[in-house]
Amino acid sequence: MMATKAEIIIPQSAEDISPSWVQLVLQKELPGIIITDVDVKGPINKGEGYMSNIIAFDAVGTRNGTSQHYSLVAKMTDFNCPFTEIKEWKKETHIKMETRKLRFYSDVVPELLSVAIPGTERESKPGNIDDQNDPPTDSLFLPKCYFAATDPSSMVSVRVMENLKSQGFSIKPNRQSLSRAEMMLAAGALAQLHGLSHLVELRSGKPLSEKYDWIKTTSRVWIDAQSSLYRDGVKEFAAAFPKKADLTGFLEKLDPYREILDLEEDPRLKVLCHTDSWINNIMIKFDGDVPTEVRLVDWQTPTYNPPTIDLTLLFLCNTSWDVFHNYRDDILAHYHHILQETLGTGESSGLKSWNS
């Protein structure tokens, strides 16, 4: 294992996840923690999280004389390994995207949490799908990260995070679309992100794109890759339905991802956007059949854009026609409610008058 500037070594494999290492990782957030044992479970289902090897492990110990148990994951990325899932992405792109994710957790998240108004992280309660006036209650929108760093010499990065799967969170199987209640939770999570990032900008006095110069208005590499996948899908559609030439032609002209590239000069108010809130990056927790909490994961493509970017992609990538047609206004109203709640009162804000 190699040392980092923070003097916490970067594990090269699952065998390097030891009690002493886990104790060092947790000590910043949990002073006084003593880890006595670590049980490495091994790789877990990573969906399409192909950029990292996700190792689950349990850590037990004591803190202030009380027994403690932590269910965690180490997301380890070896930049020397071939990156073949999307052929358009070169190794340098892989490194850049992983670096953005690390910097998001190490630089941006602490600032987002520092401006969170007490009560932003709320108790989760089951949402009543049939009662349109009683939407699900949101919790803070992202998983807890205890440590994020890269070892330049070995080209290995690691993030130690809470194990959402052990808490009952999961992605929808087989890319199923989100229900009304699930969409409201996801929209609320985006509202928290947008609101907190706007508060950071207000209090720092300069745009986030200047404060964090690695966050761009557009991620051209990501857009190019997604656009390529979209065009491949259109070709598959054309081959499967040769008599639908008119529809194929419309789809070829549509390519929504290319439209995002026109946002560089957009005069509208901008916030920190997830920019990739599709079904595999939205983890949902249920109480029986009722969705109660959402976490947004995979933060390799944060951008500085109008809030509508995230909302458009949320609807485009995750809803059925029924949910979009019948509940769009309810979902947007819930987004606006959580946005106002996140911003709080007495804060001069252009977002407050922003109409979803």
TrEMBL record:
Highest taxon of source: Eukaryota
Domain CHK kinase-like: 159-345
Protein name, UniProt field: Uncharacterized protein LOC118421219
Pfam families registered for this protein in UniProt: EcKL (PF02958)
Species assigned in the record: Branchiostoma floridae (Florida lancelet)
Coiled coil: none
The encoding gene: LOC118421219
SUPFAM superfamilies associated with the record: Protein kinase-like (PK-like)
